[in-house]
Amino acid sequence: MKKNKATFLIVEICLAILVVFFVKHIFEDDEPQKRIAVIIDNSGAEKWDSFVNGLKQAAAVENVHLIVCNTDEIENAEEQRNLIREQLDNGADAFIIQAAPGADVLKMLQTTNQTKPVVIVANDVYEKNTDDNTNVESGLPIIMPDNYKMGYQLGLEILKQNNNDIKGKTVGIVSGLKDTESAEDRRQGLIDALSDAGCEFTFDIYTTSGEDAASTIKRYDTVDYMAVLETNALEQIGQANTEDNRKRTKVYGIGHSMKCVYYVDDGLVDSLVMSDGYDMGYRSVVELARLFENRFHSITSYTTDYRVINKDDIFKEETQTFLQTCE
Amino acid sequence: MRHYNKNIWIVLLVMMALLSGCTKQETETHKTLRVGVVLYTQDDPFINALADCLKANFEEKESDDLKIIMTVRDGKNDQSEQNDVVQEIIDAGCDVLCVGLVDRTEPSDIIEMAQTEDIPVLFFNREPVREDIMQWDQLYYVGAEAEQSGSIQGELAADLIQDNKGIDRNRDGKIQYVILEGEAGHQDTIIRTDSVVETLMDKGIQLEKLSYQFADWKRSQAENKMTQLIDQYGDEIELVLSNNDEMALGAVNAYDKLDYTEEKRPAIFGIDGLEDALDAVQQGTIQGTVYNDKEGQAAQIANLALDLFQNNSLAQYNFQDERYIFLPYQKVDASNVEDYQKQ
Amino acid sequence: MIRKIVKREFDIQSMIMAVLTMLTVVTSVLMGFLLYNRYGNASRQIELRDTQRLLESTATSIETYLRNMRQIEDTINYSVIQELDVSDAQFNQELSLLYETNKDKIQSVVLCDDNGQLIAAEPVIVQKEGVDISEQSWFRVAVGEIENMHFSVPHIQNLFEDDSYRYHRVISLSRSVDIIDGDKPRNGVLLVDMKYSNISDILDRINRENKECYYYLCDGDGNIIYHPHAMELFRGLFEENNMDVADYKDGIYDDKINGEKRKVIVSTIPYTGWKLVGVVSQNAKTDSLSRFRYYIMSIITLLIMMNLLVNRIITKKISSPILRLDNSVKAYEAGEKPNIYIGGSSEIRHLGHSVQKSYEQIESLMREIVDQQNKRRKSEIDALQSQIHPHFLYNTLESITWMIEGNRNKDAVFMISELAKLFRISLSKGKTIISIEDELQHCRSYMNIQKYRYREKFAVQYDIDEELYSYCTVKLILQPILENAIYYGVGDMDEDDEPMITVKGYREENDIYLCVEDNGMGMREEDVKNILTDNQKVPKHGSGVGLINVHARIQLMFGEQYGLHVESEADEGTVVTIHLPAIPFTKENCEELEKTDIWKG
Question: How many domains does one find in chain A?
């Protein structure tokens, strides 16, 4: 008798659990979308177009809600933390962050990661480990291009396009925001590539996004080759590269906008290294979506591709398809 | 026993109240104003210059207590695209919107989105129709009156013609002119074209229209069109009226390329007051332009945005029709161009 | 293990539950399955049809757009190029006007000669340096096939300088034309670059609507013109089989990529050979039916739950009375009083009643048995007691003493041995049934002793068929009668009247009759009646408990149809007849009788 009752109750309970499970699945679609907040420097800038396209496409496919935070320059960890806090209040479930410059960004991001998952894009934290001059790594998943290699590749391009001989020539380096990993790594890559070239580095400056790089470099002597390692600076310098100037200074750059490509097409810039922003954006969202589905998924870091774009490359079909993401 | 429990609850409640009060204080002492600026395109140098002024203005207003984040987004010359951008900005969190519409007749989606979230909108550069602005009391427009640009241009031209008999080269008492227009059917094009011609005629100038060309506001197109016109009319052209500076500069280029001497060139007038145009006025290749006070507009937009955010009184603004702030266009010719040129 | 389960006894409740449950589950699942299938198929059909319809209407839109383009190109060709000389100022004017009217669709219009030299263009902008038109594919294909208009795949325009440093993605429509240039007829190529955004906007819109299907556009060779996941395709994050699709004719096809099933709908756009392809996912997890599936499954599970509950209630209602009945029977069997459950349906009530009655009957019968056993025991004890009645013993022993004192040893010996025999048979080793032989011996012993005590006052005759000797009887039935016969019969008679007690015995088929006859004083009629019923009159003299005792013991042993019968006439004599059944004195019979099955008879 008792056994009967017990069996009956157990069966009923099991069935009830099944029902709850099914009903939950019915309304699964009605579940509010997970929200991913993206914090990048100057989010409206054209250089992020490809990246944002990748984010949006992945967000549509994976059914997550994307929030690209309204930002201008993010100069330190404090500002970034405020933005993060604001988005946490706004219901963010995860973050895609470009690490801000300066110290204590590392700790701040790691703290954030304990609350909600964080994926780092575009550049990692930069904190020089004073002992051996290497970068500190955040330990968080990173999806970004290899900035060092990009700088290095640019250096190689300079050599390649000038018959591998730039001995005695002067080179000016224009980098992005100081104390950011992207600026420092690219610069180091470039310098390493040209270390045996026998060239002279006339100037080596950093720029901020509010600055007009073109007018800044006027303060320095004219150089033979200019390596401009950031999109904004490259656009400004490229635009200012007049007919006369072009005969004297060749500009090589790292940039992520169609404008930069156009400058190459026009001869205002001689060679361009561009990383695949679309891939970066797409993957970061997809990885977070996987994490939402399965708590134990561990996000692996990924290095996105870059490519060299010279004038004759632009209208090749492959390049055109690649550049389509910037539209 | 009961007493004991009640006391615990009271203590807890008081603590919670204090804590929440604390955090609130924290945010109050350090406020952030988030401004979303949406341009109709990022290819218009005037608009870009305006955005730069705006940024400078906001930067000045920042302080220890107040942080201002200004995001600039591109409408990509597509109104539905611009609407999507505004949606994204609002979604990410925004306190004030500054919008330069792609299509001035279609602000309704943006107004609706902003109204739902109680975000005031400052329209600039392209003026929405009155009925749309009046939909909600948190909508404003900062700009210049389109008619004024045309009439000032007309005044400039009229003054020059009246002062300088050399303009009418063939001395037939009529000024043969061509007009370089922006786009067919475009609001500003129509107004500017009409008002400049009307002003000239009101001032008693006899006109003969040789031709008109659309050059899409662009310098190089204007250059090509001008070349064609020169090809067709040669010296006959006595006056070139351009709806904007870029096209005026294009006309200058055309004459440059054809090596026309100064005597053979017509008087050229533009509108906007771009840096290059000011330089041209100074050099005498353009005879005048109408300064679109982007500095003034940017200042007004920044002030108004901040005042709206802080709920300050708006008494000091010179509103027309309660919502419009018009900054007057200014005449610029060789006599005062230096005032406008930046050092 | 299984055998154990199978052999297990099932109680009613489990059986009914099991059957009902199985029925419920099977029916529900079957129903759900059929419903789902039907609906699923219908739904998929509808979805396919809708997709196909959308596809076709979009194909029509695209076709219309392309036709527009061709018409524009035709207009340019016939109204401008064929009509006007290229050097004519109006040529440019007309061209400009046509461009302005269609600015939203067209990026630019270009006319060049057959060497690739630019003749005219709208809008008028600077040609790019270093660009060789004759190398561009739109030019080559137009020159290669002069009779047709050629649509290209989307590409970035590479002809003009753009002030704002922008590239424009276009689809080129080119054809070979005849140009009027002075008096020389020339050949040239007319190029109308259509804004790609027009096509992509149409396709963006339909792709945005639906998650389970997407649409893409490819040319006749399978090259992608538009794909919502074009970027992913390029980067290997997505797979598409557009190259295969290029060979498909219009219609619906089954397809599989990476193990995922889908349906592919193809619609060809005329003139260009472009194919508009709709892909509908058939993947169980992502298709629109998944929601419905879960809905059905939860409904079925709920149904089963409800049914199980109801089943259980019904089952309980049916089986509970039976179980209670069973339990009360079990309780009774365990030794409690019969308190049978009466309830449930009429049949169960009836069963309950019957069982209760049966048990009650058993109870009463058992009580009767116990009663009877007690009575018998009591009677026996009484009889025994009477045998060992002190007076008889004293008197007899006294007589013996006198005899011994009188030196009449032989008589004493005789008396003692008779007494011994008497007592031996009285006891009979505790048995109740003895042979008639032994009973007679007991009689004789008793009479011998009494004769001596009564100094041969009376005579005793024995007339018993020897055959009777080996039949059964209850012990100590003759002696009390003889005692009565002596005390109330012949004891007070004169010697002269020749008092005589005769003991007769004969068998009539299955009956045995033993008579004790005396010619004594007899009894009055009323005494005759009372003698077998009234227990009050216990004789003061003598040693028996009387006829009542004998009568009762005989009846107790053999049944009510046997016993004593008394006939008497005053002063004449009395006859007491003992009626017994003729049961041979065998071991088996004795054992059986000793058990006293009181139902026998």
Answer: 2
Same domain, C101 and C75: no
In chain B, whose CA is at the least distance from the CA of A42? B71
**Average pLDDT of the segment spanning C541-558:** 70
The whole-angstrom distance between B224's CA and the closest CA on chain C is 6
Taking residues C478-484, report their average pLDDT. Answer: 84
Distance from CA of C164 to the nearest CA of A (A): 8
> Six-digit token pair at C259?
């193990």
- Point out which residues pair with B277 in neighbouring strands: none
d(CA B124, CA B301): 8
In this predicted structure, the answer to whether residue C540 has a pLDDT above a threshold of 60 is no
- Cross-chain residue pair A258–C165, CB shorter than 8 Å: yes
Is the peptide bond prior to C123 cis by the omega test (within 30 degrees of 0)? Answer: yes
Query: Are residues C115 and C139 part of one domain?
Result: yes
Looking at CA atoms only, how far is residue B223 from chain A in angstroms?
19
Whether A318 and A185 share a structural domain: yes
Helices (H), A162-310: 181-193, 213-217, 231-240, 243-248, 258-266, 277-293
Residue A22 lies in a domain: no
- Answer whether B74 sits within 8 Å of A44, measured CB to CB: yes
Would you say residue C541 has pLDDT above 50?
no
B24 domain-assigned: no
Residues A60 and A118 in one domain: yes
Instruction: Give yes or no for residue B53 having a pLDDT over 80.
Output: yes
Residues belonging to chain A with any Cβ–Cβ distance to chain B shorter than 8 Å? 37, 42-46, 67-72, 79, 82, 86-87, 90, 210
Looking at the fold, whether C584 and C444 belong to one and the same domain comes out as yes
Q: What percent of chain C has pLDDT over 90?
A: 5
Residue B23 confidence (pLDDT) = 46
* Residues in chain A closer than 8 A to C237 (CB atoms): 282
Q: Which chains touch A (3 or more CB pairs under 8 A)?
A: B, C
Q: Are residues A131 and A181 in the same domain?
A: no
Smallest CA-to-CA distance from A203 within A189, A217, A184 is with: A217
Q: Is residue B254 part of a domain?
A: yes
Q: Which domain holds residue B180?
A: 147-291
Task: Return the partners of chain B (3 or more C-beta pairs < 8 Å).
Answer: A, C
Residue of C135, C165, C295 for testing the chain A interface, max A β-carbons within 10 Å:
C165
Do B258 and B157 share a domain, yes or no? Answer: yes
**Same domain as C182, residue C77:** no
A30 within domain boundaries: no
B82: three-class secondary structure by DSSP: helix
C554 or C529: which leads in pLDDT: C554
For chain B, the domain total comes to 2
CA of B51, closest CA in chain C: separation in Å?
17
Whether B57 shows a pLDDT value over 90: the answer reads yes
C108 burial via Cβ count (<10 Å: 0-12, 13-18, 19+): buried
Judge if pTM exceeds 0.80: no
Cα–Cα distance list, B54 to A174, B143, B313, C499 (Å): 27, 13, 21, 165
User: Which among C232, C301, C309 is the nearest to A18, CB-wise?
Assistant: C301
| Structure confidence at residue B240 (pLDDT) | 94
CB contact (8 A) between residue A11 and residue C308: yes
* Of C191, C193, C192, C194, nearest in space to C114 by CA: C191
> Domain range holding C421?
368-595
Contact B32 A82 (CB under 8 A): yes
Please write the tens of the pLDDT for every residue from C297-327. 888 888 888 888 888 888 888 888 888 888 8
Residues of C with CB under 8 A from a CB of B: 89, 92, 96, 100, 123-126, 161, 163-164, 166
Residue C518: which pLDDT band, with cuts at 50, 70 and 90?
confident
Q: Search chain C and give the residue with CA nearest B45.
A: C164
The boundaries of the domain holding residue A76 are 35-145+277-304
Does B338 touch chain A if contact means CB atoms closer than 8 Å?
A: no
The pair of three-digit structure tokens given for residue C226, joined into one six-digit string:
């538009």
Q: For the segment C269-302, what is each residue's pLDDT rounded down to a tens digit? A: 888 889 999 988 876 555 567 777 888 888 888 8
Cα B339 from Cα A114, distance rounded (Å) = 57
Q: Is residue B325 part of a domain?
A: no
DSSP C123: S
